[in-house]
Amino acid sequence: MAEVFVSLTIIMAISAVTPILARIIPKQIVPETVILILGGALLGPNMYDLIKTEAPAIEFMSELGCAFLFLLAGFEIDPKSVTGKDGIHGLATWGVTLAISILVAMTTPSIASGRQGMIATALLFTTTALGTLMPIIKERGITGTRVGEIVISYGTWGELAVVLAVAVLLGTRTKWQTAVILAGLLAFCVWLGAAGARAKRRGSKIFKFLESKSESTSQTFTRITILLLVILVTISAIFDIDIVLGAFAAGFVLRYVIPNGNHSLETKLDGMAYGLFIPLFFIVSGARINLRAVAKIPQLLVLFILALVLIRTVPIVISLTLRKSTRKEISMHNRISAATYCTTALPLIVAITSICVKNGIMEDDVASVLVAAGAVTVFLMPFIAKITYTVADAEPISAIVEIAHHPESTMDIVHSHVELERKRALKYKMEEKGLLLHEKWEDKKENLREKNN
């Protein structure tokens, strides 16, 4: 037990120091998630061996962290963004990326062996780490914007479709048995959502009681939400389905019951999730990365990331460009930015490689390199997306034309365009602050309305 508490102390120390380190780094270009993963990799069993990831208690808390991550991701998603036009195009684009990835997987047998290995490799190329992305795009003020909507719509299918495909194609049961289980889970979630929404709409005595106790020591709403999460995650675990699916479903059900959100509940869930469980999940995920294995075959890491860009980023950019509405609404640099965000991958890479290693179709070193590549995308893709904005705001093509006409004023032209980018960045920050203040004011009004009702 002492070993568990020592590991937990080290994990929480990394978690507490991470926001400070992220703040110190110039322009805050490194997301907190990356620092958490790196801290885990350095202090995990493959390097300094201070974090004991094999301890059942640490492993269990890490699984809870993953569950909370996807609960919040599911709760952030408006059902219309999945079933609307953006969602339909997102699903179609994911289908295209899957077809391309299958062709690529056929030519890369060295990653995983056999037919199951080929399927697993193909799925690895199509994932989007939406749960991991949510805190990053929130941090950057992208949620609520058109780019944010695209990232969520396309990213949801990059997460949800892969989870379903893993359950059906990589599971130990027959396909029809898996289909029956998934259909049963869907029916149960629909019933839960409908029952909850009906109780809220009719103002039943039970719902009023829960509401009246939500701010007391009873914390009824919070407890009911965690119960919902645990029930659906338990069902997933019992039927040997990735817990991501159950956690995601819990978020969807919660969003259906309270479609306009609940500031008080969200604050409490964020406090629990981002205060303990989610940082722990990222640190433990990092601790499982073998940096020595990465050093042995660095070419695999580079090739995997390049393949992700070609298979995932490029089709999304093409999809957004071919679609008339998004072509008009979103500039090219915004389309590239949205597609780049959607290429961020990690939790499902961890899940798929774990299944492959367990089934003996992938070597430990290869799995470790792929997880490391996923961790790199968590830093690299949001960084490229941010750089895309910076470069576009500086209007480089215009600068080149000006320099061609007035080469003697090159330094002045460069300086003026850098200044232009700086002013626009400042303007975005001011707009973001204004948006946050507006959201806080709207939340206060919503809370007052709820109390009056």
Automatic annotation (TrEMBL):
<feature type="transmembrane region" description="Helical">
    <location>
        <begin position="273"/>
        <end position="291"/>
    </location>
</feature>
<feature type="transmembrane region" description="Helical">
    <location>
        <begin position="220"/>
        <end position="253"/>
    </location>
</feature>
<feature type="transmembrane region" description="Helical">
    <location>
        <begin position="57"/>
        <end position="75"/>
    </location>
</feature>
<feature type="transmembrane region" description="Helical">
    <location>
        <begin position="6"/>
        <end position="26"/>
    </location>
</feature>
<dbReference type="GO" id="GO:1902600">
    <property type="term" value="P:proton transmembrane transport"/>
</dbReference>
<feature type="transmembrane region" description="Helical">
    <location>
        <begin position="118"/>
        <end position="137"/>
    </location>
</feature>
<feature type="transmembrane region" description="Helical">
    <location>
        <begin position="338"/>
        <end position="357"/>
    </location>
</feature>
<feature type="transmembrane region" description="Helical">
    <location>
        <begin position="87"/>
        <end position="106"/>
    </location>
</feature>
<comment type="similarity">
    <text>Belongs to the monovalent cation:proton antiporter 2 (CPA2) transporter (TC 2.A.37) family.</text>
</comment>
<keyword id="KW-0472">Membrane</keyword>
<keyword id="KW-0812">Transmembrane</keyword>
<dbReference type="Pfam" id="PF00999">
    <property type="entry name" value="Na_H_Exchanger"/>
</dbReference>
<feature type="domain" description="Cation/H+ exchanger transmembrane">
    <location>
        <begin position="14"/>
        <end position="386"/>
    </location>
</feature>
<keyword id="KW-0813">Transport</keyword>
<feature type="transmembrane region" description="Helical">
    <location>
        <begin position="300"/>
        <end position="318"/>
    </location>
</feature>
<keyword id="KW-1133">Transmembrane helix</keyword>
<feature type="transmembrane region" description="Helical">
    <location>
        <begin position="369"/>
        <end position="389"/>
    </location>
</feature>
<feature type="transmembrane region" description="Helical">
    <location>
        <begin position="176"/>
        <end position="199"/>
    </location>
</feature>
<feature type="transmembrane region" description="Helical">
    <location>
        <begin position="149"/>
        <end position="170"/>
    </location>
</feature>
<dbReference type="InterPro" id="IPR038770">
    <property type="entry name" value="Na+/solute_symporter_sf"/>
</dbReference>
<keyword id="KW-0050">Antiport</keyword>
<dbReference type="GO" id="GO:0015297">
    <property type="term" value="F:antiporter activity"/>
</dbReference>
<dbReference type="InterPro" id="IPR006153">
    <property type="entry name" value="Cation/H_exchanger_TM"/>
</dbReference>
<protein>
    <submittedName>
        <fullName>Cation:proton antiporter</fullName>
    </submittedName>
</protein>
<dbReference type="GO" id="GO:0016020">
    <property type="term" value="C:membrane"/>
</dbReference>
<feature type="transmembrane region" description="Helical">
    <location>
        <begin position="33"/>
        <end position="51"/>
    </location>
</feature>
<keyword id="KW-0406">Ion transport</keyword>
